[in-house]
Amino acid sequence: MKSFDIEDIKNFMNQLLVSEAYDDFYLYEARVKGAIDYFIGGKLNKDYYDAEELENLGDAEYTTWSKVKPMVYELMKGKRRPLNFKIILMYSREKVVQLVESNNLPVKADDVGALFYNIHFDAGQLNVTTGTSLKVFTLDKRLEQLWDETVSKNYI
Fold first, then answer.
1. At what angle do helices 142-154 and 93-102 cross, to 10 degrees?
2. Which of 28-32's residues contact partners 24+ apart within 8 Å by CB, and which partners?
3. Based on the number of CB atoms within 10 Å of its own CB, is 123 exposed (0-12), middle (13-18) or buried (19 or more)?
4. Domains identified in the chain, total number
5. 3 forms bridges with which residues in the sheet?
6. Domain that holds residue 116
7. What is the pTM (predicted TM-score) of this model?
């Protein structure tokens, strides 16, 4: 787990809310506190979809950031910044597989629950924290270190 303080908030938010830099991440959840509190849970409600739509979703359990980004953008735009917000993204399953397999890690891609990218804004400060969730116990920290490096190089 690594924490990054974001100095250029405007540029970071432009990357997050306008560009396609994070579009293939999954949304775990988003919370925005302004005049009222908003919560968006990213877990898909499979009962909502018909058979064809379910087939198109495949194994996805969460929606992609690209699908909810316009809603979150609408909640945040305006004359005033939100009081605070928290957005938890997860690295796409395909990219988790690629990261694990291309680096000969001791864990298998199926052992990885998620690689998290936590964005937190409060009191004018913006912070990003990485996180890993494994389905198995291991003392090996290479995946965590690799995820921290990946975020540092590509998403900060």
1. 120
2. 28/62, 28/88, 28/89, 28/90, 28/114, 28/116, 29/86, 29/87, 29/88, 30/68, 30/72, 30/85, 30/86, 30/87, 30/88, 31/85, 31/86, 31/87, 32/72, 32/75, 32/76, 32/82, 32/85
3. exposed
4. 1
5. 129
6. 3-154
7. 0.92
> pLDDT digits over 17-52, tens only?
999 999 999 999 999 999 999 999 999 998 898 888
Length of the chain: 156
Structural tokens at position 2: 């690594």
Asked whether the beta carbons of 149 and 130 are under 8 A apart, the reply is no
Beta bridge partners of residue 98, listed in sequence order: none
136, 137, 156, 140: which is closest to 148 by C-alpha? 156
Residue 125 near residue 83 (C-beta atoms within 8 A): no
- Write out pLDDT tens, residues 106-131: 899 999 999 999 999 998 999 999 99
Among candidates 115, 112, 107, which has minimal Cα distance to 140? 107
